[in-house]
Every structure is written in C-alpha cells, then in structure tokens.
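Schema walk-through. Below, the input block comes first and the output block second. Nothing else is stored per chain. Lengths vary across the set, and this one has 94 residues.
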Amino acid sequence: MISASRDASDTHDVCRYVTPGFKYTMSDVDTLANAFATVDPADVIVTTTDQLGTLVFLTASTPDGSALIDITATDNEGKRATIDLGSYPDPDDQ
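--- output ---
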C-alpha cells in the first residue's frame, strides 16, 4: 500500500488495498506517501496498539521514529487485515 501510494495518480491505485465504502482523497494517499517517502516499505514497523472485536488499531512507523501514522484494520477471520485509510462512511452514500 505504501509503495502504491508513491506512484498513485488516482485513489483507485491505492484503494484496492483498503475496505470498500470508505471515502478517500488524494490528500489521504499523499499523506501516506509523504510519511514514508524515504523509507523502504519493507522497513516500516507495524505494531498493534489495541484491538476491539474485529477492529485492530495499528501504528506504522519508520525505524528511526521520524514518521508515524495510525491505521485501523479489520481482521477478516484471522487470515488477513483490510486497511482503512480515510473517512467512513462515504459522505456521498448519505
């Protein structure tokens, strides 16, 4: 997702990694890309800060702590996590 955000020209370039129904803007994508602009995505440290049912609250950070972003994920039967980056619900759905 971080790699995709760096080259994205449209939110759909990144949103294939995220939960449907959320509203994304290029500013969300740019925030992610800029936060880790100089870091190899493989070096990003992801830690679990809390869990509430199927919601998992994560923090992604650089090894030196210079960048940090909070992420919410949904645990899908313990097999994978769907990343939520943006706002929910999509205001256009209301």
